[in-house]
Design brief:
single chain, 98 residues, Glutaredoxin, 5 helices
Length: 98
């Protein structure tokens, strides 16, 4: 979808270069989500760590868990012109490209 739009983009390999807590906070704010909402709860790592969305954790604790376990970060995340979208469903990306 991004290639078809003609928009230049950069792919960030988050497994090799996980985002910082500040970057994740900025993404959450841009998406209007809490950090727990950016966690892939069906990820193998999430289950292996015995986590639950109902866990009584602070935003900082959820951010740290994503930094330490980047496979748990929901993806793809697209940032364009200061706006953010989750790429699931892919059509949501079109909303920020207008």
């Amino acid at each position: 979808m991004l290639k078809e739009s003609g928009v230049e983009f950069e792919i960030i390999e988050y497994l090799k270069n996980p985002p910082s807590a500040e970057e994740l906070k900025k993404i959450c704010i841009g998406l209007g989500l809490e950090p727990i909402d950016l966690v892939r709860t069906k990820d193998k790592q999430f289950k292996e760590l015995g986590l639950s969305k109902k866990d009584d954790r602070t935003q900082e604790e959820w951010l740290r868990l994503m930094i330490d376990n980047p496979s748990m970060i929901e993806r793809p995340i697209v940032s364009y012109a200061g706006r953010y979208a989750l790429g699931r469903p892919p059509e949501s990306i079109g909303n920020i490209l207008d």
